[in-house]
Amino acid sequence: MQLQLNLDLIEGYKNNSQKARVLTEDWVSRQAYCPNCGKKPLTHFKNNRPVADFFCQSCSEEFELKSKGGNFSSIINDGAYKTMIDRVQSDNHPNFFFLTYSKTYEVQNFLILPKQFITVETIIKRKPLAPTARRAGWIGCNIDLSQVPSKGRVFLVKSGQVREPELVFKQFTETLFIREQPFAARGWLLEILKCIDKIKEREFTLEQMYGFESNLKLMFPNNNHIKEKIRQQLQFLRDKEMIEFVGRGRYRKL
């Protein structure tokens, strides 16, 4: 995988956002591959399709590209807030590609956010545009990657280093079962994964997970059996080989 962007493409362009779009879309078309089936190249949707930018002709996975120059940030600018919320709640949205590049126009980070990890909690509502703005009152949104479990942040390129496709494929496909879950069950799984992330040690205990009971109660105020739900979700994640049961209330991250 070559990380240099093709600067020959932007001769004649003056707008920086147009330059970034041309450079990064070209790079994805030439260098990226589908994390679901491994096939390349990805195909660019024609006519600026509003929902996604690329798709895989082999398995039909769709991807929307967001890119920026400079350092990687956990906050990603997106479009209209209401549109994004509607898409998330209907599950009618693509996976996301997030790409950052250096001052020398080399790709530094190329991240996939699988669509099953995009929830209402990951979408941050921005302030309405000022009355003097061309689109006065328009409300945009950001995607907050800090609200995404580590299992849902799949890097093809990280800090200028290309990851092995086998590792990318494994990480992307091992969480596809989450897509099959109803929204309520999906929310619980993602919150439990985030709790596991907060435990620094690779091995953790059921008692440590119970320590998140008050936070989970705030997330799910109608559930009066939080500890039981924690045990249920851990068992489910164990069955899906996301964690390993060691014995006597102890688990290990995989």
TrEMBL record:
Record-given protein name: Restriction endonuclease
Lineage of the organism: Bacteria, Bacillati, Bacillota, Bacilli, Lactobacillales
Record bears the keyword Hydrolase: yes
Domain named Dam-replacing protein HTH: residues: 185-253
Keywords carried by this UniProt record: Endonuclease, Hydrolase, Nuclease
InterPro entries: DRP, DRP_C, DRP_PD-(D/E)XK_dom, WH-like_DNA-bd_sf
Record-linked CDD domains: DpnI-like (cd22319)
Recorded GO MF terms: endonuclease activity
